[in-house]
């Protein structure tokens, strides 16, 4: 049987468990938080006072912080790209009739609240140029992404396991910084988003776990493949209006490194966590090739840690069209 057909069989086997995955890792609509729980209520008489207060507190937050918050928002807002990518994966029915497509839709529903709440907060804050942000979002959706998983569910679930943990880390750090600057409401917002990302990370991590049980060698090779080519961020094509594709990504990521929201050592730590989570040292019954892949993956975190220690982060802030330097400290 071809590799593709085996993957399809594995996906069909796991599909039987999708309902329990949904119960374990997603929260029903009526119970989960919504953006309006966290923002000034426009039906309320005190709305304008609440917005004024939000804007006053926002004045305390520094430039790199705004850049990161904007970049994170845009990354979340490019959700249509991620949903259409997931519906293309082998084993997911793009017409939305099987268990996997139900998973994708419900995951998308939860994720959709992230960009929504952050966008509304940015709009009310008065510290950013919304039109520039909106143009970047539109560009990013137009440009799509190229993350090297193809339609392979194994590679896809390695990517999503990694990426959900990366977004957990970055939203959680933004939450901590906001708190430090006295912005309790923004801090709570980002903390709740981070909580969603963690649940999603557990879900995708569990899918990989299950695949390791039935198709260990191919799962190991897919893990190795993704780590060899490196996990690129979903917003790696980020650009500002009138600029070339990808031109803003590096500057955005410099800002994130400077304020410690997401750093090269976080990348290594995530890899280490995945290696531990999937207990790859204990997986046996592997082909020779997959044994080698396991050895490679076991040694990789230490190797990457050495490289990440040598990285130098530029000290100079890039001026983005999204954030008005005159308005921000
Ligand atoms: Fe998200
Ligand atoms: Fe996510």
UniProtKB/TrEMBL annotation:
<keyword id="KW-0276">Fatty acid metabolism</keyword>
<feature type="binding site">
    <location>
        <position position="197"/>
    </location>
    <ligand>
        <name>Fe cation 2</name>
    </ligand>
</feature>
<feature type="binding site">
    <location>
        <position position="164"/>
    </location>
    <ligand>
        <name>Fe cation 2</name>
    </ligand>
</feature>
<feature type="binding site">
    <location>
        <position position="111"/>
    </location>
    <ligand>
        <name>Fe cation 1</name>
    </ligand>
</feature>
<keyword id="KW-0408">Iron</keyword>
<comment type="similarity">
    <text>Belongs to the fatty acid desaturase type 2 family.</text>
</comment>
<dbReference type="GO" id="GO:0046872">
    <property type="term" value="F:metal ion binding"/>
</dbReference>
<keyword id="KW-0479">Metal-binding</keyword>
<keyword id="KW-0560">Oxidoreductase</keyword>
<dbReference type="InterPro" id="IPR009078">
    <property type="entry name" value="Ferritin-like_SF"/>
</dbReference>
<comment type="subunit">
    <text>Homodimer.</text>
</comment>
<dbReference type="InterPro" id="IPR005067">
    <property type="entry name" value="Fatty_acid_desaturase-2"/>
</dbReference>
<dbReference type="GO" id="GO:0045300">
    <property type="term" value="F:stearoyl-[ACP] desaturase activity"/>
</dbReference>
<dbReference type="InterPro" id="IPR012348">
    <property type="entry name" value="RNR-like"/>
</dbReference>
<keyword id="KW-0444">Lipid biosynthesis</keyword>
<feature type="binding site">
    <location>
        <position position="197"/>
    </location>
    <ligand>
        <name>Fe cation 1</name>
    </ligand>
</feature>
<keyword id="KW-0275">Fatty acid biosynthesis</keyword>
<feature type="binding site">
    <location>
        <position position="114"/>
    </location>
    <ligand>
        <name>Fe cation 1</name>
    </ligand>
</feature>
<feature type="binding site">
    <location>
        <position position="76"/>
    </location>
    <ligand>
        <name>Fe cation 1</name>
    </ligand>
</feature>
<keyword id="KW-0443">Lipid metabolism</keyword>
<feature type="binding site">
    <location>
        <position position="200"/>
    </location>
    <ligand>
        <name>Fe cation 2</name>
    </ligand>
</feature>
<protein>
    <submittedName>
        <fullName>Acyl-ACP desaturase</fullName>
    </submittedName>
</protein>
<dbReference type="Pfam" id="PF03405">
    <property type="entry name" value="FA_desaturase_2"/>
</dbReference>
<dbReference type="GO" id="GO:0006633">
    <property type="term" value="P:fatty acid biosynthetic process"/>
</dbReference>
<feature type="binding site">
    <location>
        <position position="111"/>
    </location>
    <ligand>
        <name>Fe cation 2</name>
    </ligand>
</feature>
């Amino acid at each position: 049987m071809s590799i593709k057909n085996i993957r399809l069989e594995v996906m069909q086997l796991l599909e039987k468990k999708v309902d329990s995955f949904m119960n374990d890792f997603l929260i029903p609509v009526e119970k989960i938080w919504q953006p309006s729980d966290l923002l000034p209520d426009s039906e309320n008489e005190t709305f304008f006072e609440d917005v004024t207060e939000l804007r006053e507190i926002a004045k305390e937050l520094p430039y790199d912080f705004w850049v990161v918050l904007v970049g994170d928002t845009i990354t979340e807002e490019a959700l249509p790209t991620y949903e259409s990518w997931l519906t293309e994966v082998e084993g997911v029915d793009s017409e939305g009739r099987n268990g996997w497509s139900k998973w994708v839709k419900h995951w998308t529903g939860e994720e959709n609240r992230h960009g929504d709440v952050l966008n509304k907060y940015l709009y009310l804050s008065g510290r950013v140029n919304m039109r520039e942000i909106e143009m970047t979002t539109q560009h990013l959706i137009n440009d799509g992404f190229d993350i090297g998983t193809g339609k392979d569910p194994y590679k896809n679930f390695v990517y999503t396991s990694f990426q959900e943990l990366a977004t957990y880390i970055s939203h959680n750090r933004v939450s901590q910084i906001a708190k430090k600057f006295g912005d309790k409401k923004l801090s709570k917002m980002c903390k709740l988003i981070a909580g969603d990302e963690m649940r999603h990370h557990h879900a995708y991590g569990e899918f990989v776990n299950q695949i390791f049980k039935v198709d260990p060698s191919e799962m190991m090779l897919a893990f190795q493949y993704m780590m060899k080519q490196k996990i690129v961020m979903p917003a790696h094509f980020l650009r500002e209006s009138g600029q070339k594709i990808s031109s803003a990504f590096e500057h955005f990521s410099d800002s994130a490194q400077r304020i410690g929201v997401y750093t090269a050592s976080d990348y290594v730590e995530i890899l280490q966590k995945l290696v531990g989570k999937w207990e790859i040292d204990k997986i046996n019954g592997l082909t020779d090739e997959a044994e080698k892949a396991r050895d490679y993956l076991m040694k990789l975190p230490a190797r990457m840690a050495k490289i990440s220690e040598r990285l130098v982060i530029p000290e100079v802030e890039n001026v983005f069209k999204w954030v008005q330097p005159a308005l921000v400290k």
